[in-house]
Amino acid sequence: MAVFTVHEPPPSGDLMRDAERVTFVRDGFSWAAFLIPLLWLLWHRMWLVLVLWIAIVVIVQWGASLVGEPAPLVAALAIALVMGFEASSLRRWTLERRRFRFAGVVAGTDRSECERRFFADWEGGAPVAPTSGTSAPPATVPRVYASSRHEGDEAQVLGLFPTSERSR
Questions:
Q1: Number of domains in the chain
Q2: Are residues 69 and 116 in the same domain?
Q3: With b meaning 16 or more CB within 10 Å and e meaning fewer, what string describes 33-55?
Q4: Alpha-carbon distances of 147 from 51, 53, 159, rounded to whole Å
Q5: Phi, psi of 23 (to 5 degrees)
Q6: What is the C-alpha to C-alpha distance for residues 82 and 93, in angstroms, rounded to an integer?
């Protein structure tokens, strides 16, 4: 099952343009960021992360070369592993810096199903009305779009438990 976080761009007034710019970030390990981090960072236009990554690689490799022969290889593998595990978090951070708004979490069998599920309920960043008695400005509420597939009578549930409580 694929799990994506959804990020909406700053509103431009054109709903179709905003819908095209909605970004889905897959949660989990990124093989592309692990194997080819430089190209992955360039592809996603993550300029600040790219500069920081280059600085970290240069400093760690310089320090590892002072230690001895197997250290540079171990250091390169460690940096690649960290990049693979943290790629989606770094991408979310970059989107947040670009003023994208977290819109929710979508789960499905693949990306296209997640996109269909999200856009079926998408309100285009419309604010939710505040509850009565509060003076807080309207805020948008992130949603969780879970899989609607069922195996027999037991519904699949995201989380630590394989079935819902009512099926016990």
A1: 2
A2: no
A3: bbeebeebbeebebeebbeebee
A4: 38, 36, 12
A5: -115, 130
A6: 16
Is 127 in contact with 42 (CB distance < 8 Å)? no
Tell me the C-alpha to C-alpha distance, in Å, between residue 167 and each of 10, 150, 161, 162. 42, 12, 12, 10
Please report whether residue 82 resides in a domain: yes
Calpha distance 154→166 (Å, rounded): 9
Is residue 156 a part of any domain in this protein? yes
> What confidence tens digit (pLDDT) does each residue in 46-70 have?
999 999 999 999 999 999 999 988 9
3-state helix, strand, coil in the chain (%, to 5): 50, 20, 35
**Position of tokens 């990124």?**
30
CA dist 137 and 131 (Å) reads: 10
Could you tell me the pTM of the whole model? 0.70
Residue 45 covered by a domain: yes
Q: Is residue 5 part of a domain?
A: no
Which residue type occupies 122?
A: W
Range of the domain at 117: 103-123+142-168
